[in-house]
Amino acid sequence: MNDRTQNGVSVRLENVAFSYGEARFVFDAEFRAGAITAVMGASGSGKSTLLNLVAGFESPQAGRVRIGGEDVTALPASMRPVSMVFQENNLFAHLSVEANVGLGRSPSLRLAAQDRERVEAALARTGLAGKGKRLPRELSGGERQRVALARVLVRERPVLLLDEPFASLGPALRDDMLDLVARLQAERCMTVLFVTHQPDDARRIADHVVFIEGGKVAASGAAAGFFADDGPDVFRRYAGTNGRESRHVARKPT
Ligand code: ADP
Ligand code: MG
């Protein structure tokens, strides 16, 4: 595991078929080991579904999910080498910050001295030193997402799935959080799948972009080419409308 963590692990979906009633998905995609890939696409295109299939919260009707070359299609979510952070509700409201992070080491919160040290270190690393005894409601929205990232650190899983984790934060704070993700990713060589509506977010930290449309990968490639004037047509159409709209919304004072 240590070796694999240092080199990163790839994530591969091989013709993964899934449906929610009428909504059908077929994902064929490779996410580069030790890189950040932005997963973009209109609302309802299937971005969260793709992440849920990688995490094991949903099971495909056909196809394989591979992580680091290993077939994990039949593995339950708890056994997969994956952590996930959502837009909100990542924390248990009745547990302290340090307990919420400690859950990443032991679901029963039986923490040895070494585990407590890891929790402290993760809180310091995410800018939360001294806030371990607080309850989630005593934190700002940005701090709560830092707690979720601290838990990711103590879990030490090589794949990190981020489902619009900073969408409700203002732009300056969002940039701080993105930079924190980029630093943590580089230190751990994690393979990150990062769902975002904001082309600016992807431009800031992503190496690659996968663009989803209608339950399929419609385009993918290096971030630099994607955002260039001669980038993929499907993405230019999206960025020309949704991109500007969402950027406008994000800059409104809240
Ligand atoms: P995105 O994250 O890109 O906005 P989702 O993956 O959440 O999109 O959803 C894709 C499609 O699947 C949407 O049409 C949505 O309504 C449908 N869907 C998502 N989750 C469920 C669910 N639990 N039950 C039924 N339909 C769902
Ligand atoms: Mg979603």
TrEMBL record:
Pfam families xrefs: ABC_tran (PF00005)
Chain ranges of the ABC transporter domain: 11-239
Domain of life: Bacteria
InterPro entries: AAA+_ATPase, ABC_SmlMolc_Importer, ABC_transporter-like_ATP-bd, ABC_transporter-like_CS, P-loop_NTPase, Thiamine_ABC_ThiQ
Keywords, alphabetical: ATP-binding, Cell inner membrane, Cell membrane, Membrane, Nucleotide-binding, Translocase, Transport
Gene3D superfamilies membership: P-loop containing nucleotide triphosphate hydrolases
Any one GO CC term of the record: membrane
Gene Ontology BP, a term: thiamine transmembrane transport
Example of a GO MF term: ATP hydrolysis activity
Protein family (similarity comment): Belongs to the ABC transporter superfamily.
Name this protein carries in UniProt: Thiamine ABC transporter, ATP-binding protein
Organism: Manganibacter manganicus
